[in-house]
Design a protein that fits this description.
The structure is a homodimer of 658-residue chains. The first copy, chain A, is of the alpha/beta class and 658 residues long. Chain A has 3 domains: 155 residues; 369 residues, Alkaline Phosphatase, subunit A, CATH 3.40.720; 97 residues, no CATH class. In chain A, strands 16-17-15-14-18-10-19-29-13-30 form a 10-stranded mixed β-sheet, sandwiched between helices. In chain A, strands 2-9-8-4-5 form a 5-stranded mixed β-sheet. The first copy, chain A, has a 4-stranded antiparallel β-sheet with strand order 1-3-7-6. The longest helix of chain A is centred in the last third of the chain and has 25 residues. Chains A and B meet through helix 1, helix 4, strand 11, strand 12 and strand 13 of A and helix 1, helix 4, strand 11, strand 12 and strand 13 of B.
């Protein structure tokens, strides 16, 4: 307890310089770093790496002479157990070598403006691929600079050796908040006298929770490290996935943690898949297998998805059974792919069917592993595919690399239903894990195109509805835990209506604002009111009119400078701001609003807010109330019996040949 | 079914003119109005009035000659039962007289700008104080203008004749959203490496739900009609409480519905109380007993709270057992009180102890009915009472009417704990109902003073924590259903940090915005970091520093023009905007941001968003998932056994003498 208290005091003392705009290393307020740091949780048997760093700042407020202590010592003890060296405790026969590097950072905005960086020299060691099997608390101690100590207490969660759910489907509405779900309901469903005549499928989930999305070292998150929390039970740093970020220059040597699909394949040999409306190397789908602190290394991460981590010994899944999304640029041979290789060919060599359009997807055999890449970059959004399909022709995104538009496109629903067919067929009694992501809720909110974001949210809801039906047909509904959540939010909010005709016709910016009706003057949603000549045939759970005269008036807690008219952009996604200034072509009849973000920001940013978690199926009762993002992993992993007391590992061949 | 379909078609046809910025009568898209309208739900035995209106527009798009049909007929039939006249069905011996009036409205903003009002003549009848005891569907039919028909189908919910919870405490965080709860946690509780070292009491609730807050006739709500939904199971119109809004000129003759405390007192004779940090005549506390479509009629509503509705026969509670809050101006004899009468004297006559400060509150006997009014208007907020107490002297708010400041003030916690003592003492085996409102979460969000709003949210959480402890001490915890929810939201969002020192020192508005740190640059909360010389002694669940250099950067989805610097206002609540222009004295070192609301708005407005519902205690399992605001009433009323198959009414003397 003494050491815990000491660590706390050091943290408090140092945080004034290290815990804000810029940080030396977010998880290391002292000059000695244990990574994973204090208070991290592990599933029994979950594999991970341990890095120690000793920092020697050359200049700046922490300067200590600039010579890092290479003679640091590291020990570990289980509560009530013997203290042992790390190597002895984990039975590591060869003590790792000391590594050395340097990095620099700015202490605050003044230092940055002045170009005065603080230089830090580092000595480090890393112990790779270890695991703790016995539940309880473990204290790791780093001693350095003769008298300094940094401790970390880790908790191994209870054993969970038996499966309660055969299958798990995790839907991620990227950036999706309760505010957005409320707005989507308003657009897609009609009220009569205060009562909805139909509801979202989300509204029918029996259990609801909230999860906290913050990063390990900042209160805001991005989709990389929030995905890591959901998939591995370990929060990370912005841009990092499947690792704790260290300070080394190598983006691929950071200490790793094992993910849900690595565990599932290693322990049960189950099938797994990922579906996304983003490019497949994007954070949410790729974080299932990625181990890097740089989410932008797309090519190498597709290689990791197929073949596992290739620079260190590490559990690997043998590749997904299903991989559907966009992002052909990371598969086609060229600058976007790993070492310029042809990853369509590499997947095909491993027995994958390859689909480049919806027609091929539908025809792909359910019995084979399936790769489907339907365009370059992100899939066009639901509104452009269904309401303004002429916009599809404006892209040059054919997945074959041909300079043409991809037009034979599946949506999230088609991809997800096919994924379930393949996974069900291939998994047999072992069950499967599927992650299905509505990625453009986030991407469209970033560019303030909330109509397109809400279209994709309604598509997600429609997909969940269809998934229930599909699982019921397969006889799997009651064996499947379905979880729907988000990785973070955006500060989107609806606050009234706007008479878009009136707004457009007012002569000045201030007068245009009078078009907004608040409180009783918001009236009822006009998105559900039939209008002659307006029909998209998009089904009963979508608006019948996306461009009514009385539109929702909505905005963001934070945004760049932009122009508002509250109408949908009919020609494609909104581009509110270019190079820090209001786009000349955005909402030309609207009024200019200056933003609250740094003036050079062209997009909106993420929100602090807790996000909802919906659950249905085996273990649903564990998802009520409020919990940390990492607990989503622990709840799912526990339900899947992944907390093992021994190194339960199928042979490598069992994994990769499956 | 034919008549239902016809009603739907009429609705669809008419809504283009009547369902937006201005509406003829929100619940009546046709010219014949049944109020309560189609699709309303009732508790078995819940008393209500029924109004019929026939509209005759003189001009405008609906003009029909301007002579309302006085010979309309009205019938009712239970599913599978006989159709009877309203009078016969309810055993009303004297058919009500025809009433006549006129009103006018604007069809849209163009009509308003031009001053072209549409005039409507009305013929109407109202049937008062009826009830339906048998669960099932009832269809009410209004025939008018020879060939026209408007129908309404009402549903009587299942019987619930037995109490499952002895006591119910309903906490209302006015305007409180998940975004705000997340921000309050960040300010009041410390994280170490992504793990909170302590949590909100809200975070410990086992069951979480979301409720939809929309009005009956617009998708935005205010606190009056949202309170009505929570207390009566009937959504209403902005500014209306305990009634369905009709079109008549009289603000007190609208058709009423019975509220939770009227039901509880009539059926079980239980004790009840209301506590609020607002003035007691404000919407959330007063809606427990108020029946009017105009929330601003403060004096008459205090009279209703004490003596019941005085213009019609109606169930009344005999007055609250506990009534604690602000708003002395509606009790002191004068322009703010009903007929200029002294309501302190009137409450005292009925046996209430009267407390005008915290000292008196503490000394008040637990065995007597208790009125506590601690200031004029709203109570000063937690931050001004605890962090900047010198600000209290700037008010002239003494509840005695003396021209001085009220400084001996209780907070929500002190009022709530005393309320529980009194209610527990007085209720015996019958149990009690308490509503406790943190009102200034909303009031401070309106003026964009989110720091003060979050202070009051943390005070609410602290109050809930203390309530659990108090109930445990009394042996009542497991007999008490505790529900925490909001009546609506505001579009508040945290999106990063701001280096307030840097912001202040930058020379231009655009450069000041560079002070905002987003994503990894948000760092950790500095509100929980001890700083020398800064201590408020406000306890472990509050910030230790409300004015750190690195503050949260936060904003609203909608706001008036204002100036931002992200610092707390040390001298009192923020006044961002006066008369539609940025206040010259607000955040003088900040940068100007133009708003998105009508330019003459001086405050922020409510949000569409669903709000969280936390539940713990008997019946907690019924609060999971997503539901309508009216269902909060039905869940609580069902748990309290208020759905009765007969007119279970204690004698009037039993009520009022209690």
């Amino acid at each position: 307890m003494l050491s815990m208290r000491r660590a706390f005091l050091l943290l408090a003392a140092a945080s004034a310089t290290t815990a804000q705009t810029y940080q030396r290393l977010g998880t290391c307020p002292t000059l000695g770093c244990v990574i994973p740091p204090d208070q991290q949780d592990f599933l029994p048997g979950q594999q991970f790496d341990i890095r120690f760093e000793v920092h020697a700042p050359v200049n700046g407020s922490e300067a200590n002479g600039g010579i890092p202590d290479e003679a640091f010592s590291v020990t570990i003890a289980k509560d009530g157990g013997q203290t042992k060296s790390i190597a002895e405790f984990f039975g590591i026969t060869e003590e790792p070598a000391i590594e050395k590097w340097s990095f620099s950072w700015y202490e605050d905005l003044y230092a940055k403006d002045a170009g005065e960086a603080s230089l830090v020299h580092v000595a480090s060691k890393i112990y790779r691929r270890v695991a703790l099997y016995e539940p309880g608390d473990y204290t790791v101690t780093l001693k350095y600079y003769s008298t300094e100590t940094t401790t970390a207490t880790w908790t191994v969660r209870p054993l969970a050796e038996h499966k309660r759910a055969k299958n798990v489907i995790l839907f991620v509405g990227d950036g999706m908040t309760t505010n957005m779900i409320t707005a989507a309901r308003l657009l897609g469903h009609k009220t009569v006298n205060g009562k909805y005549q139909s509801l979202l499928k989300l509204d029918e989930f029996p259990v609801l929770g909230h999860q906290m999305t913050h990063s390990i070292d900042s209160f805001m998150t991005d989709s990389a490290n929030s995905a890591s929390a959901l998939y591995s039970g370990h929060k990370s740093t912005v841009n990092a996935m499947g690792v704790y970020a260290d300070s080394s220059p190598d983006l691929f040597d950071d200490p790793k943690v094992e993910t849900i699909v690595e565990l599932l394949r290693r322990i049960w040999g189950s099938a797994w898949g990922a579906v996304s409306t983003a490019f497949l190397a994007d954070a949410t789908p790729i974080a299932l297998t990625a181990h890097t602190r740089s989410r932008g290394t797309y090519g190498p991460l597709i290689e990791q998805a197929l073949n596992g981590v290739n620079n260190y010994s590490w559990p690997h899944t043998g590749g997904p059974d299903v991989y559907f999304g966009g992002g052909a640029e990371n598969f086609l041979p060229g600058s976007g792919s790993y070492k310029g290789q042809d990853y369509f060919a590499k997947f095909a060599e491993k027995g994958y069917s390859i689909s480049l359009n919806k027609t091929a997807l539908e025809a792909a055999p359910d019995s084979e592993r399936a790769l489907g890449v339907f365009c370059k970059s992100n899939l066009p959004v639901w509104i452009d595919r269904n309401v303004f399909p002429e916009n599809l022709n404006s892209y040059t995104n054919d997945p074959s690399g041909a300079k043409k538009a991809a037009t034979d496109l599946p949506g999230l629903k088609e991809m997800t239903l096919k994924a379930i067919d393949v996974l069900h067929k291939r998994s047999g009694n072992e069950g499967f894990f599927l992650m299905s992501e509505a990625a453009s809720i986030d991407k469209q909110m970033h560019v303030l195109d909330y109509q397109r974001a809400l279209g994709d949210l309604l598509e997600l809801d429609d997909t969940i509805r269809a998934t229930f039906k599909k699982l019921e047909e397969l006889g799997e509904l009651d064996h499947t835990l379905i979880v729907v959540t988000a990785d973070h939010g955006h500060g989107f909010d609806v606050f009234g209506n706007a008479d878009t005709k009136y707004l457009s016709e007012q002569p000045t910016d201030r007068e245009k604002r009078s078009a907004v009706g608040i409180y009783q003057n918001s009236g009822l949603s006009q998105y559900t009111v039939e209008q002659e000549g307006v029909s998209y045939n998009t089904g009963s759970n979508f608006p019948v009119n996306w461009d009514p005269r009385y539109a929702i008036a909505a905005g963001m807690g934070a945004s760049p400078d932009r122009r508002e008219n509250y109408q949908i952009n009919r020609t494609g996604s909104r581009i509110p701001n270019t190079r820090g200034y209001v786009s000349a072509f955005d909402n030309t009849d609207g009024f200019v609003v200056n933003g609250t973000l740094p003036a050079d920001e062209t997009q909106g940013v993420h929100s602090l807010t807790d996000v909802p978690v919906y659950a249905r199926g085996p273990c649903q009762e564990t998802f009520g109330g409020t919990f940390n993002s990492i607990d989503v992993f622990f709840k799912i992993a526990t339900c899947l019996g992944l907390g093992q007391s021994t190194n339960k590992t199928l042979t490598d061949s069992a994994c990769s040949a499956k």
